[in-house]
Amino acid sequence: MDISGITEAIVAALGVSGIVLGWASRMRTIRQQQAEEEKMTNCKKAQMQSMRSDMDYIKNGVDDIRLKQVYVGIEVGKFIV
After folding, report:
1. Tens-digit pLDDT string for the chain (81 aa)
2. Nearest 10 degrees: Cα torsion 22, 26, 29, 35
3. Transmembrane segments in this chain: where (predicted)?
4. How far apart are CA 52 and CA 30, in angstroms?
5. Rounded to whole angstroms, how far apart are CA atoms 43 and 32?
6. pTM
7. 3-state secondary structure at position 51
8. How far apart are CA 20 and CA 31, in angstroms?
9. Which residues of 50-71 are buried (b: 16+ CB within 10 A; e: fewer)?
10. How many CA atoms does the CB half-sphere of 52 hold within 13 Å?
């Protein structure tokens, strides 16, 4: 085998290895992006749950205030009549 045959074999091997490394790198990037999106989705779910909890707390507080107003109104009505 002469020098040109060896050179052609090396060039072919480098071409194939470049394709394989590029493909492997792209697959790694895709996995990282999916993991990041999943993490963001979990974070958004946690934020939504927190917001729901806060809204429920506020609703309960408003309901308590309304009940107190009704109760006070009944008590005031007893004294007025």
Report:
1. 688 899 999 999 999 999 999 999 999 999 999 998 888 887 788 888 888 888 888 888 887 887 777 777 666 556 554
2. -140
3. 6-24
4. 33
5. 16
6. 0.48
7. helix
8. 17
9. eeeeeeeeeeeeeeeeeeeeee
10. 6
